[in-house]
Amino acid sequence: MRERGAHCPLCRGNVTRREKACPEQALDPENIMRKFSGSCRCCAKQISQDSVGNSNRSETSTSDNTEPYQENTSSSGHPIFKCPLCQESNFARQHLLDHCNSNHLFQIIPVTCPICMSLPWGDPHQITRNFVSHLNQRHQFDYGEFVNLQLDEETQYQTAVEESFQVNI
């Protein structure tokens, strides 16, 4: 199993303490990455300008060969998911994250994220180019712990405004 912590977005190698303490501020990451050419400091893999420019966006929206996701729920009430990379099923969010990090870390295959599709605002046509990276960036926590997934976005917004008003009085 992979250890937790910050990882290089190019090779997924560990980021050192020094790099965490003094990160370089990227004002325009997309433009900086397009101009970048060299080797990864963790794995020494050569990264060309073309490969960075073509893969710097992890998600695109397309509508080919996707089907609506049917959410399943475990006996504990947590949603369960099927791994879109190997079709193994019955994963809770954290177990899917762990499974993908240990079994599919370097597989970059465009798929639809089952966790995103289970959310009320999920788009079944949203394709994630690098699923494992997407999981690590977007699904480190359960959204249900922070928002009521049964309410629509407008109601949640109104509730947040009202609670903010109550706190500031």
From TrEMBL:
InterPro entries: Di19_Zn-bd, E3_ubiq-protein_ligase_RNF138. One of its GO terms (molecular function) is zinc ion binding. The keyword Repressor does not apply. Residues 81-140 form the Di19 zinc-binding domain. Residues 51-76 are annotated as: Disordered. Keywords: Metal-binding, Ubl conjugation, Zinc, Zinc-finger. One of its GO terms (cellular component) is site of double-strand break. One of its GO terms (biological process) is DNA double-strand break processing involved in repair via single-strand annealing. This is Di19 zinc-binding domain-containing protein. It comes from Callithrix jacchus.
